[in-house]
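so my prof wants the structure for this chain in the tokens format not the other one, which i didnt know existed until like an hour ago. anyway here's the sequence
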Amino acid sequence: MKEMEFVVVDKGKDFIVYEVLNNDNTILRPLMEEIEKDSMVENVRYYFEHPYLSNPKIHINVKQGKPQAALKRSLRRMEKIYENLYGQYRKTST
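here's what i got, hopefully its the right format
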């Protein structure tokens, strides 16, 4: 399986739009929920222009700060969540 990749397709002072290549909904949906929790994010959404012919796009609008930083913060929080989950799994499986 190829790694997901985020490509910037549009960018402004308070927003950014990413196209997600090699999409995996099992990660994308929790990522959207994590971005929504960010206090600097005004709104976030992801959408498909066509369900079979296009990659999903993520639109992040921020109240303050850089929109790309919101994605970075959310990915770091998710990394910690999954590391903790993996640690719990390792404890119970040994």
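also thought this was worth mentioning. The beta strands are 5-11, 15-21, 41-47, 57-62.
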